[in-house]
């Protein structure tokens, strides 16, 4: 990405690593006030920097060293050892930790999820796969909820369940892309239950693409979205309004599931159009 001399080094790195237009995140957080939007963009930049270690480092030892650096950096950030923060992302993150009281465990969970991914190319059952989703996207959504509104047990539980559901949906939508990289984010016992082998999945053969496996995954993801919605219904209305950008992401997840039902995620990564995302976000903000 070409450097913009009008931006600080922090802003340059955040722009490079955060969510992009026309992503679901761009439209979901479109109407959030600028201060909170910039905080969310910074947290996403940190999240992506950690998560993408898996994809940018071909040597696992190097990847683990980078994860160790992030783990050490998070510890120093929370110890307020300002003199050690010479990385643009850690410099940008420090004031947000103080302003929004971001919990360190959520960052450490994200690091742990990438460590899991370095070790496991397969997940034996739904419980182990869901733990990965909880640690990664669940923790990410919890951090975002802390920026958007007051931290309550309900908002944290809602954010975690919504994050899990959203990551599940996104992995179904990109099964073909993940398979091309040798990764399977489907429980191995699901494959056996539906007569699909790992080779069927990785090679996108008819056994994987035309059977009942996709229906099972869609059913699971819908159930997880419904569980998140139940948490939202129990929330105080004023608090629910403050985190409605996250609710917009949930609505986008439901819309994506409809596209997955009709499409083939082994042939093309399933995605919503910019117009669809804008409409969903706008309706969510107007209704709540």
Written account of the structure:
The protein starts with 8 loop residues before the first helix and ends with a helix. Helices cover 73% and strands 0% of the residues. Helix 3 packs antiparallel against helix 8. The relative contact order is 0.11. It is mostly helical and 288 residues long. The chain has a single domain, classed as Farnesyl Diphosphate Synthase (Orthogonal Bundle). It comes from Taylorella asinigenitalis 14/45. This is Putative squalene/phytoene synthase. GO terms for molecular function: transferase activity, transferring alkyl or aryl (other than methyl) groups. It holds the Pfam family SQS_PSY.
**Could you give me the name of the CATH homologous superfamily?**
Farnesyl Diphosphate Synthase
Q: What is the top-level CATH class?
A: Mainly Alpha
The parts where pLDDT drops under 50 for at least 5 residues are: none
- Tell me roughly what share of residues is in helical segments: over 70%
Q: Which key terms come to mind for this protein?
A:
about 290 residues; Farnesyl Diphosphate Synthase; about 0% strand
């Amino acid at each position: 990405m070409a450097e913009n001399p009008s931006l600080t080094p922090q802003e340059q790195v955040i722009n490079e690593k955060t969510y992009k237009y026309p992503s679901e995140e761009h439209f979901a957080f479109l109407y959030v006030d600028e201060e909170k939007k910039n905080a969310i963009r910074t947290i996403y930049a940190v999240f992506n920097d950690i998560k993408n270690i898996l994809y940018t480092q071909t040597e696992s030892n190097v990847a683990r060293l980078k994860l160790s650096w992030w783990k050490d950096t998070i510890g120093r950030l929370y110890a307020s050892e300002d003199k050690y923060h010479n990385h643009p992302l850690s410099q940008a993150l420090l004031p947000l930790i103080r302003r929004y009281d971001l919990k360190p465990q959520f960052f450490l969970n994200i690091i742990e999820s990438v460590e899991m991914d370095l070790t496991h190319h397969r997940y034996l059952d739904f419980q182990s796969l869901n733990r990965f989703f909880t640690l990664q996207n669940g923790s990410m959504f919890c951090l975002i909820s802390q920026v958007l509104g007051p931290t309550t047990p309900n908002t944290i539980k809602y954010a975690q369940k919504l994050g899990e559901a959203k990551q599940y949906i996104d992995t179904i939508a990109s099964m073909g892309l993940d398979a091309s990289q040798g990764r399977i984010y489907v429980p191995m016992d699901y494959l056996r239950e539906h007569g699909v082998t790992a080779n069927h999945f990785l090679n996108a053969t008819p056994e994987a693409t035309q059977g009942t496996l996709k229906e099972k995954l869609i059913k699971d993801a819908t159930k997880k979205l419904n569980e998140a919605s139940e948490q939202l219904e129990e929330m105080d209305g004023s608090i629910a309004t403050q985190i409605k950008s996250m609710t917009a992401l949930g609505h986008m997840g439901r819309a994506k599931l409809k596209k997955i039902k009709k499409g083939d995620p082994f042939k093309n990564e399933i995605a919503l159009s910019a117009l669809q995302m804008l409409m969903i976000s706008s309706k969510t903000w107007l209704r709540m």
